[in-house]
Fold:
Amino acid sequence: MLIDASQREILPAEFAMVDGCFDPLHRGHVEYFRFARMLGVPVLCNMAADEYIRTRKGRPPLLPEADRAAVIGAIRYVDYVFVAREGTAWSLDYFRPKYYVKGADWIGSLPSEQIAICRERQIHIVYANCVLNSSTRILEDFLENRRVRKAV
Structure:
């Protein structure tokens, strides 16, 4: 279910929050969602808006946010999808999940602002050991293969 900030009250008292760009969505993301669901609570996916991808990744999104939200919302491990326009720290502070789930590749590199908010709000940071791929790597490999084919 796609929600906006005004619908915070429909979230249960306890839930897990996952977040990322999910562009393109891949199997590792599904495993990440599955891991979050195994915590025994509903899952809110805090999905980066198109503008974040343009600004932070330096490229347009492969799939527009409406399409990414629809696909993520159809995955059985995800109960709620929120298109994040204000950043992860804002979403953590506003929604106050019980768990903030990140991939194990984030150990030691979570932004200090997110860690501070989790401490203040008593949000448990949980690292999922299910990193199977990278959207950035998938896109880079695709573009490199395309360049090689054009050169031949």
Notes: The chain has six helices and six strands.
